[in-house]
């Protein structure tokens, strides 16, 4: 098991990277540091682009950026994340255009582009920035390192320019960057979670209205542990699988004559089965039943302490979500199925894949005193898995 690193220590790493690269002239202002969290989606998967419900929590793993202003119209960027080899990228602000440059730089560059586009950054006066990133969010593991780097960048650039960037606008522009600049058709879930996370709480998100309501989810107080299980396996299918699923849902809504699958109830699933082909009907059934599970989950949280029958009911909802994602939506993977089964055998109350799927991470909700047994069961099923506990953490913020 690896320990979680809080924002303060990853902020220090970002500052060190900033200094190692001798970013900014000695006379330039000293850098500030901003951080944004990764997330675990506790329940409500593949519902956000169907205008449905989700209940994620920001986790105590952060991407931090040390940032200082420039005056020559350049963005200079460097990241400590392993795959990116700490080489410095330079992007002139006037060259910002969707898709360029490709690769990791497009995430922060896309955020600068989105902020300039809506005038949060003033194109006439904003002179660029030096940005050095460090992160404890596993990259590409379904824990939303992408929203973390976007939201950290957004707050940093607005902060350097002295501009106001309320959480709803931060989330919207970060999603805009990922959709229109990077070219990933994600829904709003990840960015809303990074922008609105509350320590000790899960967020109930109505993605149609954009309303975010925190519900207390104090795991340690309830004697519970939420284990994150990074399978370290990513299937190529994910690149086409996600847009395929999204397109299938949008097509099904059109065929059924509803604005979005959010508007379909469980009672109407029979009609969906009659009017759609068998596979599309299963996709629809996942989305409709998953929305129901999110509503049940938050009503259980609202009803009182997480213990006894309520806790067991929460566990069953998590596992039912996994089964639905595996069988109806078909976005799980053999590794995810195997760690979920192992966690349940090890005594977890519930377990499910989290994030878009096709590999990535699972979560398991367990009693604190069963954590070691659950982790051991998971490791015997998938020795390469990285397992760590996560608690609900705070949103994107300025660290120093
Ligand atoms: P996830 O959001 O689940 O981690 P994504 O595929 O959506 O996976 O986003 C991962 C991509 O985001 C990386 O491949 C990289 O391009 C970019 N990224 C995320 N975090 C960092 C980081 N700390 N440094 C550089 N690039 C990052
Ligand atoms: Mg992502």
Tell me what the structure shows.
The structure is a single chain. It is built from eleven helices and twelve strands. With 400 residues, the protein is of the alpha+beta class. A hairpin with a 4-residue loop joins strand 6 and strand 7. The radius of gyration is 21 Å and the shape is globular. Magnesium ion (MG) binds at residues 144, 146, 190.
State the end-to-end CA separation: 29 Å
Shape category: globular
Tell me the fraction of residues in β-strands, as a range: 15-25%
The unreliable regions are: 1-5
Ligands in the model, by name, code or SMILES, are: adenosine-5'-diphosphate, magnesium ion
Helix and strand string, N-terminal first?
HEEEEHEHHHEEEHHHHHEEHEE
Summarize the structure.
With 400 residues, this protein is an alpha+beta fold. Helices cover 41% and strands 23% of the residues. It folds into two domains: 182 residues, 2-Layer Sandwich (Ribosomal Protein S5, domain 2), CATH 3.30.230; 174 residues, GHMP kinase, C-terminal domain (Alpha-Beta Plaits).
Which key phrases capture this entry?
12 strands, Alpha-Beta Plaits, globular, Ribosomal Protein S5, domain 2, binds magnesium ion, binds adenosine-5'-diphosphate, single chain, alpha+beta
Topology (elements, then pairings):
Blueprint (H helix, E strand, L loop, with lengths): L6 H14 L11 E12 L9 E17 L4 E6 L9 E4 L13 H13 L9 E8 L9 H16 L6 H16 L6 H8 L4 E6 L4 E6 L7 E11 L2 H20 L12 H7 L2 H26 L4 H20 L6 H12 L4 E5 L4 E9 L3 H11 L4 E5 L6 E2 L2
Parallel strand pairs: 3-5
Antiparallel strand pairs: 1-2, 1-12, 2-5, 2-6, 3-4, 6-7, 8-10, 8-11, 9-10
Helix pairs in contact: 2-3, 2-4, 3-4, 3-5, 4-5, 6-8, 7-8, 8-9, 10-11
The protein binds adenosine-5'-diphosphate and magnesium ion.
